[in-house]
Amino acid sequence: MALNDDFAQRIVIDTAAMDWQASPSPTVWSKRLELVGGQENGRVTSVVRYDPGSSFHGHDHPDGEEILVLEGEFCDEHGRYPAGTHLLNPEGFRHAPFSDTGCVLFVKLRQFGGDGRTHFAHETASMAWQDGPVPGVSLIPLYQNDHHGEQIGLIRFAPGASFPDHPHDGIEEIFVIDGMLADEHGRYPAGTWLRQPAGSRHAPHSDTGAVFYVKTVR
Q1: Are 159 and 208 in the same domain?
Q2: Which CATH number characterizes residue 158's domain?
Q3: Residues 167-189: pLDDT tens digits?
Q4: Is 184 a domain residue?
Q5: What is the pTM of this model?
Q6: Which of the residues 17, 56, 85, 111 has the least number of beta carbons within 10 Å of its own beta carbon?
């Protein structure tokens, strides 16, 4: 089984319009956006919901895991992670996640592999926004690895802000957390996931303001 596994294609998905699908746990649900490989052991990008009082069995994470907490509080035996927390769990990491209050997550499995990876947990709600390259645009850098060609961060557009047209040397991935992002190709409300291929270009802007996650991989 495969889903959106052609990385030469531009993909845009409004996750708010998708139905929740059952997972191996009866209290955990998902909206799968990308699948490469086996359904339960492949590379996966998804939005995941934990019902209040839910839990998931202890499990390993081959090739690592990335989580951005969108709503509520996500927990495991290592800590408690409120909305806005960004987690990177490397190869060999094991946990048994749960949520007392319920939570919604943006999750990427088998996309943090390789030697030398370490665990990161950033509570972005307490981090300062930095000035971006143009007025009205600010950012929070979260992770950069030149060896793997990865860069991850949060970007905030003030109402009316725009960014000049620019190309992408590698794959760019965006998840809109709040507000409305737009470019010459369309408009993307909160909950929209975009994946743009290497060589793509656009000039993003926001009339109302927007906050979004962005990951680039060369």
Answers
A1: yes
A2: 2.60.120.10
A3: 999 999 999 999 999 999 999 99
A4: yes
A5: 0.95
A6: 17
